[in-house]
Design goal:
Layout: E1 3-8, E2 11-16, H1 25-35, E3 43-45, H2 57-66, H3 72-78, H4 81-109, H5 133-162, H6 168-188, H7 193-207, H8 214-222
Parallel strand pairs: 1-3
Antiparallel strand pairs: 1-2
Helix pairs in contact: 2-7, 4-5, 5-6
Length: 223
């Protein structure tokens, strides 16, 4: 395996020719140069000077957990009887929406015949409609995320209100599906997952410089 060193903004980044971690434009330029027989020096200088940040999934997860907050207080609030009833009512309200979203997604993207609970007879008049290839891909991602949230809510309802166990495998399968639609949406936006992760982590660091607090979260919502 040949390793190419790229000096960018004074920072040397190692980019592997096989198993490239990102598909950013700079990496593509380097690999294209190699494929066209560029046997120049191993250190390549690119203009304009730009620093490339690569965020691995495990690093991103650590950044997310840094701003999670302690779940003890939310858990205690959930044990208030009115909140128990509100949560169940919310899940029951969302269930038919999620099912219709799933049926619509399969009808549009898989060509599968659909039956609907809430949108069988639409009453909304459409004045204008424009949906190109890019927006169609975004819609696929968003409807997919919505339906996967429905699957996750079903697990929560079964565990919380029926006492049914949910295995690690069940959780991982559903969150894996969420990841698929997440990746599709990022690509539709013209971004890599690494870029999406970095933007999100940067935003969280600005919002919670030290760690998550309810006071900071409430302050952010008030703006």
């Amino acid at each position: 395996m040949q390793k190419i060193e790229v000096e960018i903004s004074g920072v040397v980044k190692g980019v592997q020719k096989d198993g490239v971690e990102t598909k950013d434009a700079i990496t593509e330029m380097i690999l294209q140069a190699e494929m066209h027989g560029n046997n120049g020096p191993s250190r390549i200088y690119l203009e304009p000077v730009t620093e490339v940040k690569i965020v691995k999934l495990d690093q991103y997860q650590k950044g997310v957990l840094r701003t999670e907050g302690d779940p003890v207080a939310p858990m205690q609030r959930l044990y208030d009887v009115p909140n128990q009833e509100r949560l169940l009512a919310l899940i029951q309200l969302l269930e038919p929406i999620m099912k219709d979203a799933d049926a619509f997604k399969k009808a549009i993207f898989y060509g599968k015949p659909a039956s609907y609970a809430l949108i069988a007879s639409p009453v909304t008049t459409v004045e204008e409609f424009t949906c190109g290839r890019g927006m169609t891909r975004h819609l696929h991602s968003i409807l997919g995320l919505l339906t996967e949230v429905g699957e996750l809510l079903e697990h929560c309802k079964n565990a919380i209100y029926c006492g049914l166990p949910v295995s690690k495998e069940d959780w991982v399968k559903e969150y894996g599906d969420v990841g698929w639609y997440h990746a599709l949406g990022a690509d539709a936006a013209g971004a890599t997952l690494s870029e999406v992760a970095q933007v999100n982590i940067d935003k969280l660091r600005r919002r919670y410089p030290e760690k998550f607090t309810e006071a900071l979260a409430q302050e952010h919502d008030s703006h």
